[in-house]
Write a structure and sequence with these properties.
heterodimer; A: mainly beta; six-stranded mixed sheet; B: about 110 residues; mainly beta; seven-stranded mixed sheet; four-stranded antiparallel sheet; 11 strands
Chain lengths: ~110, ~110
């Protein structure tokens, strides 16, 4: 069974803090990993992709990948109230993409 | 900025009826996808489509479902004989060559 696991949260952080979101996946052969943000009632919005072990930074977002541990994470620095959303981890497995259930993040002013 | 579009935004149908959900992928994209998200649940892969044929489908995508690219721009999902449990948001997505998929705004399907 191909699985992507995330802590459902909710995760609450104060404005300006670092939010840390984690994800594990079951398919050791997976090569492509994504973080999407989903506001309530809206569609998933791609914020980061990562393909190689290590860190990838884009503005306030850093994605981290460890294929040996089958683990991918997203750090959001200087969190803003507008970052409050559900963050979906997605893993490409054999030409189909599997999503985790998402972690709900609340950033409190 | 190019984007995936979907119509209608909300579709209400009676159980047993057929519905067609429509998507216009980003124009130079080659790979097309349908996903569904039941309220409060995770996004679930249904089917991927490339070069005018299905390349992958999930266990959800049974004989009740079909996809078609009837012309150079539209990509459709047909659901025959809808059931109450088909009520969900249906998202279309597309990508070019990289694996990054871009989602449309979704169609909310309500089966009564």
């Amino acid at each position: 069974q191909k699985e992507v696991e995330q802590n459902s949260g909710p995760l609450s952080v104060p404005e300006g803090a670092i939010a840390s979101l984690n994800c594990t996946y079951s398919d050791r052969g997976s090569q492509s990993f994504f973080w999407y943000r989903q506001y309530s009632g809206k569609s998933p919005e791609l914020i980061m992709s990562i393909y190689s072990n290590g860190d990838k930074e884009d503005g306030r977002f850093t994605a981290q990948l460890n294929k040996a541990s089958q683990y991918v994470s997203l750090l959001i620095r200087d969190s803003q109230p507008s970052d409050s959303a559900t963050y979906l981890c997605a893993v490409n497995m054999n030409n189909d993409m599997r999503f985790g259930a998402g972690t709900r993040l609340t950033v409190k002013p | 900025e190019p984007e995936v579009t979907q119509t209608p935004s909300h579709q209400v149908t009676q159980m047993g009826q057929e519905v067609i959900l429509r998507c216009v992928p980003i124009s130079n994209h080659l790979y097309f996808y349908w996903y569904r998200q039941i309220l409060g649940q995770k996004v679930e892969f249904l089917v991927s489509f490339y070069n005018n044929e299905i390349s992958e489908k999930s266990e959800i995508f049974d004989d009740q479902f079909s996809v078609e690219r009837p012309d150079g721009s539209n990509f459709t999902l047909k659901i025959r004989s809808t059931k109450l449990e088909d009520s969900a948001m249906y998202f279309c997505a597309s990508r070019w060559g990289t694996n990054e998929q871009f989602f449309g705004p979704g169609t909310r399907l309500t089966v009564l």
